[in-house]
Amino acid sequence: MPRINGQLLVYLAVGAVLVLVGLNSIHGEKSKSEAFGAGAGSAAGASDPGDDGGGTSTAEGSFQVSGGSRKLIVDVAGAVRKPGVYRFGQGARVIDAIARAGGVTKQAMVGAINRAATLSDGQQVVVPSGVGASMASSSRSGATAGAGLQAPVSLGTATQEQLEEIEGIGPVTAQKILEFRDSQGGLGSVDELDQISGIGPATMESLRAALTP
């Protein structure tokens, strides 16, 4: 019996050791699990700045949109109602430029330009006018005055008589043009003549066709 009890005690001691080892192992696994959970929570918290990163991505997207919507600056001239410099979005076409400038005048030769062409930054869209052609036709019919208008006259050297030969320009308007030119010390553009009282869009088209700066 004493021998049997000794063995039993040994077994009990071994069993107790195994139980303690098992408990320690379970506790260690639990600690690791909690530590992992805390780490995951920290990682999730760290992802908040990632939201800022998402914001950055959004900001970058906004920048790309801004770059995509970069404005084109285009000069629209010739036989349009409101010549000038206008801004357009990417992808705009010549027909959009004409519409922005108030459309074409009665003298416009729209068939001479490609209205479907895409606009580019710094481009000048010039709508040709048929005024020069009608003047040339008059000159061929034998009108001496009309013959002098086949080639544009320099605005800087034009005389009263030359200005009066332009369609829609009478003696009074011609005199106003000369006085305005002299008061300005010369003109760099024919378009500056629209500042003169009594000169409307139709007259400006005639001046553009018959004069050069």
Describe the structure.
This protein has 213 residues and is mainly alpha-helical. It folds into three domains: 1-45; 72-127, no CATH class; 132-212, Orthogonal Bundle (DNA polymerase, domain 1). 54% of the residues lie in helices and 9% in strands. It contains seven helices and five strands. Strands 2-1-3 form a three-stranded mixed beta sheet, covered by helices on one side. Strands 4-5 form a two-stranded parallel ribbon. Strand 1 (72-78) and strand 2 (84-88) form a beta hairpin. The longest helix has 67 residues, at 2-68. The chain is rod-shaped. It starts with a helix and ends with a strand.
Characterize this entry briefly:
54% of the residues lie in helices and 9% in strands.
Provide the CATH architecture of the largest domain: Orthogonal Bundle
Q: Rough shape?
A: rod-shaped
Number of strands: 5
How many distinct folded domains?
3
Instruction: Tell me the span between the first and last alpha carbons.
Output: 133 Å
Topology (SSEs and partners):
Elements: H1 2-68, E1 72-78, E2 84-88, H2 94-100, E3 124-127, H3 131-140, H4 144-147, E4 153-154, H5 160-164, H6 171-183, H7 201-210, E5 211-212
Parallel strand pairs: 1-3, 4-5
Antiparallel strand pairs: 1-2
Core attributes:
rod-shaped; DNA polymerase, domain 1; 213 residues; 7 helices; 54% helix; 3 domains; 9% strand; two-stranded parallel ribbon; mainly alpha; 5 strands
